[in-house]
Amino acid sequence: MASSVEKWVGFGSAVAGFALLWSRLPNRVHDEARHIITSLFPMVLAYFNPYEQITISKYSDDEQFRRNKLFELIAGSCIAINTRPWCSGKHELVFVFHKRHRELMQSSYLRDIILRGHEPGTKSRLS
User: Fold this and answer.
1) Which superkingdom does the taxonomy of this entry point to (predicted)?
2) Among 32, 70, 96, 123, which residue's beta carbon has the most beta carbons within 10 A?
3) What residues does each domain of the chain span?
């Protein structure tokens, strides 16, 4: 049976061999490996992150740079019902919530805001 010193020597030899091979590879391989690692790392973090985020931009993505109607509805509602901690930023609204509350957020909160904004008699800046 190998002692712990022999195991560490074997591990050190493996790390040294990897470092030697890594130093001999061309820079192109380093860049590709870095690209793969940096593109996969956020996906792995998102898998283990229990929070989700919905971002609503103030302006639509079309070429005329018009205001987003949904942004106006939600911003007005956030001010009316005093939920400013959920609304942040001047040009975008960011809602961060736990994954188990996703259905509540989409089916109740956002749906009610949209329906309230389309009710007759409500003052909105959509016209």
Assistant:
1) Eukaryota
2) 70
3) 4-48, 51-117
What three-state secondary structure class fits 114? helix
Phi, psi of 97 (to 5 degrees): -150, 160
d(CA 108, CA 70): 15
d(C-alpha 114, C-alpha 77), whole Å: 9
Q: Is the pTM of this model over 0.70?
A: no
Tokens of 42: 């956020």
Do the Cβ atoms of 78 and 93 come closer than 8 Å? yes
8 Å CB contact between 88 and 94:
yes
The letter for the amino acid at 88 is S
